[in-house]
Amino acid sequence: MHVRKNDIVQVAAGDDAGKTGKVLFVMTKQDRVVVEGINFIQKHIKRSEKNSQGGRVQKEAPVSVSNVLVICQNKNCEKNGKGVRTGRKILENGDKIRVCYKCRSEIIASE
Ligand SMILES: [Zn+2]
User: Fold this and answer.
1) Ligand 1 centre from 45 Cα, in Å?
2) For the segment 51-74, what is each residue's pLDDT rounded down to a tens digit?
3) Which residues of 49-72 are buried (b: 16+ CB within 10 A; e: fewer)?
């Protein structure tokens, strides 16, 4: 999976195309991710002790991981701030890192 939790991603398709947000949740088996502020759905809440009003809340629904691209944060990259495809690079110590396909700089998830 090219997307990790806390990555900043850009949506490439659908109603939210072009929007960016932080990855809150990765569902590896389903190939889906939940992104902050993306793909809102109305959820109905039943009246309960906790919520005496009941009603509706907005909640992010998962989107297909194939519809999001990680943002390149390298300021010198022509794709800076935009969604990019990622590649892999193997370091001398054997670590595999994700890199921007354009500038080959490492993609690092924010904490
Ligand atoms: Zn880049």
Assistant:
1) 43
2) 777 788 889 999 999 999 999 999
3) eeeeeeeeeeebebbebebbbbbb
